[in-house]
Amino acid sequence: MTYLPKPKFRHPSIEKNALGLTHRDYEGSISTLCAGCGHDSISSAIMHACFELDLPPHRIAKLSGIGCSSKTPTYFLGNAHGFNSVHGRMPSVLTGANLANKDLIYLGVSGDGDSASIGFGQFAHSIRRGVNMVYIVANNGVYGLTKGQFSATSDKGAKLKKGAVNTDDAIDLVTMAIHLGATFVARSFSGDKKQLVPLIKAAIDHKGPAFIDCISPCVAFNNHDGSTKSFDYVRAHNEAVNALDFITERAPITADYDPGQTQQVKLHDGTSILLRKMNADYDIHDRVAAINYLMKHDVAGEIPTGLVYLEDEPGDMHDRLNTVDRPLNELSDADLVPGSAALAKINASLR
Amino acid sequence: MAIESVNDFVVRFANVNGSGSASANLLFARAVMRMGVPVATRNIFPSNIQGLPTWFEVRVCEQGWLGARGGADLVVAMNPQTWDKDVASIEYGGYLFYDCSRPIPASKFREDLTVIGVPLTEICNREYNDARQRQLMKNIMGLGALSAVLDMDVSVIEALLSEQFKGKQKLIDANLKALAIGRDWALANLQCPIGLRVKQADGVGDRIYVEGNAAASLGAVYGGATVCAWYPLTPSTSLAEGFTSYCKRLRGDAETGKNKYAIVQCEDELASIGVVIGAGWNGARAFTATSGPGISLMQEFLGLAYFAEIPAVLFNVQRGGPSTGMPTRTQQSDVLACAYASHGDTKHVLLFPRDPGEAFEFGALAFDLADRLQTPVFVMLDLEIGMNSHLTKPFAWDDDRKLDRGKVMSKADLDSSRDFGRYLDVDGDGIPFRTYPGTHPSRGSFFTRGTTRDAYARYTEEGGPYVENMQRLLRKFETAKSYVPAPLIDSAGAAARFGVLHYGSTAAPMDEAIDMLRKQGMQVDVMRVRGFPFAHAVDDFIASHEKVFVVEQNRDAQLRTLLMTEIGASPDKLVSVLHYDGSPVTARYIARAIADLVARAETPAKEGALS
């Protein structure tokens, strides 16, 4: 981390988005994570995505659990409310926040310990409940704040810095998320901003549980030979199924792609995703095939990345609960309190 | 001598769980009430779905005492499995009502009892072919016979049946027929009435008969709750289910058919309280309903809500602990677990309703208090209140009342450049202002965390701001004293040496116990505590009495501990009266214990005078 405060002035020609905001308006306070931490790249990708989508920062709520990853919401979107909750319990807090006000964008940031170990249950249930959220796991396979113990996403056979070998099987959150009913599932790598930023943009736009497993090497405890979550290892074994661009009306795609290799996926609100397929046979709409593909490549020691699964017309928890359009936290006394006349009827029925 | 009593006796129905007896039993209780005679009813049931014994106790009491009395004058013995125990439980000279279709050896009876045998199974088998109908109609037929021996006005039962099955004439006819068969058989073959009789009276007034859990859930509707997150747990389940059914009736949007509420059955209690805290943080009124084991699971989150100052409402329907304990029996044994829930220095606001009427009132109030004080508020029910129907004053609501959202800064407040510090004590009452997420593009955002921070919610690990914040939380707790419902005093008139302090479901038997004691010439003042932190009146009450008997339904005298630690009450002054076998405490038990203690307290003085 740095101790130098960020200067407040900005260059007059700095780029502005449709809201007249600059990148600086999407920043938070200075990161206290280790220099070179993958998590800071994720924060940066989130800021980029929000800037490019022209989102007013205060309409986003950022929630996290406990751990290095969960510290990051302090370091982006300073004008958004944030909630650093309890270890492994971000999903339930986010679920409650979402119930209270369906109009905000909910960004849940978690880690592999936070989501695959202590919070595995809440991860699972928030997804199967269909909460409209972007759930990002900064996955480094190791506990950082407690100085380098294995987490549940550490691969079997992976080595700690001091030589200890992991003998337990790893949990793959991507496969789990598809299985549990997430309607947008992706894996990315904090070292690949080109892939990560459009994924986050598409995930924010997605109405339903959007899950991104982002491998994010821990430079302090898990970036050595023998680690399967190091920068070198991930780069060498990264097997992208596709690359994508998230297209809004404001930013139509201009790049020229080979038509045989692209697929345009229209989304509900007029936006679309342009996929550049790396693997011609891969169908992002096929849930069963996706799980099959992930498991096959896992056995081969490869790390599939990209948009792995997408449901085009997802619903969310509020649809299932049939809640009113107005956020519940804006309902007035008249909406909520049935009054004395209704009570008199109830009294009469209890005599 | 057979017991003779009009409008003052206890009937206990001994049944098999799942046999369909509950509705006939309830019908009996409601019929007595419709005749203007107060009843106090209790379910005694095991942790079981079908097959194990259950009892339904109806205390008929024109004087209006609503606590459990203990003993039974008439047992309706429909369960062979518990026959011996049921027969043994009848008061001397009491009555035994049973199905005499199959002979029972004479040794199974007691000589002092009046035995009322009705061949219910035999009649049913003759009248009905269908097995389920035989079972259900047997219950109604039994009620018919009972109405005859107790001299009840059968038209009241007929009216209740017609109301219950309104619009289903076939069912009404079938039930009325069964009722008449039973009644006619009894009138023709038995000596009617027996020594126990129900006579028309005027003791019920406009009171309603309702379960505490249903009442509390209706309180949550009126308190403006929009989010309910819960996990099934006896005896709290019917509270969340009550909220669901009341919301369906009262909270639909007439135009769109959409819901002005959200109810989530969670994967566990950790998630339940997490959802509640997330919703509270985001400005919705949210609650969970649970019992002791759930409270244990929620501990970490409750510390977060206390420290990060997030409104939350918890209905704790207490049962016998520890561990799985006595899941279908009543206790007041979570007082300390709730008052000091979580690690670190924490204290929480507790409300102690006495019955369904206060469960409604406090159920609504809890949401105002949680928003006003920005902290978790516990409504401390128990199985006795929650899962039994009680006669209680009718629910009331003042249509001019506004929901108190507490100190929340709006966009306009923030635009006016008022200083906003999330944990800044601007009014000296320890309560800071908060903002809802999404209020303003550039002002009022803050980061909520369980770690330490300064008055402007900026992360800090400095000792100074930490201590300052913890002291402010104490100031806030002091403020809470004036917000929780004030204790109620029942004064003996003349300066009494002894006081009695109690709370929650002990109130009903306490009313009767105090009447017993005063009739014996014992003058005691009584205070019913209704909230924690304790109002200053509690200190004064203890100070002004030589001894104060603290009556509780737990082993460890938990409220007494709170009185000693929170207001420094002297242990010598506070004498415990404890009852914790899982049954609701009775007036007899309380009166006897207090009479003994008073006698003992007075003895040393006499000895002193003699020596």
Give the helix/strand class of chain B. Answer: alpha/beta
Name of the level-1 CATH class of chain A: Alpha Beta
Mean pLDDT of chain A equals 92
Helix content of chain B: 25-40%
What's the CATH topology label of the largest domain in chain B?
Pyruvate-ferredoxin Oxidoreductase, domain 3
What would the CATH topology of chain A be? Rossmann fold
Largest sheet of chain B: 7 strands, mixed
Description:
Chain A has 351 residues and is an alpha/beta fold. Helices cover 30% and strands 19% of the residues of chain A. Chain A has one domain: Thiamin diphosphate (ThDP)-binding fold, Pyr/PP domains (Rossmann fold), CATH 3.40.50. Chain A has 12 helices and 13 strands. In chain A, the strands form 3 sheets. Chain A has an 8-stranded mixed sheet, sandwiched between helices. In chain A, strand 11 and strand 12 form a beta hairpin. Chain A starts with 37 loop residues before the first helix and ends with a helix. In chain B, the strands form 5 sheets. A 7-stranded mixed sheet of chain B has the order 11-10-12-13-15-14-21, with helices on both faces. Chain B has a 6-stranded mixed sheet with strand order 3-4-2-5-6-7. Chain B is globular. In chain B, a hairpin with an 8-residue loop joins strand 3 and strand 4 (53-61). Chain B is of the alpha/beta class and 611 residues long. The chains are: A alpha/beta (351), B alpha/beta (611). Strand 2 of chain A pairs parallel with strand 17 (447-449) of chain B, so a sheet runs across the interface.
Please sum up the structure shown.
The complex is a heterodimer of chains A (351) and B (611). With 351 residues, chain A is an alpha/beta fold. Chain A contains twelve helices and 13 strands.
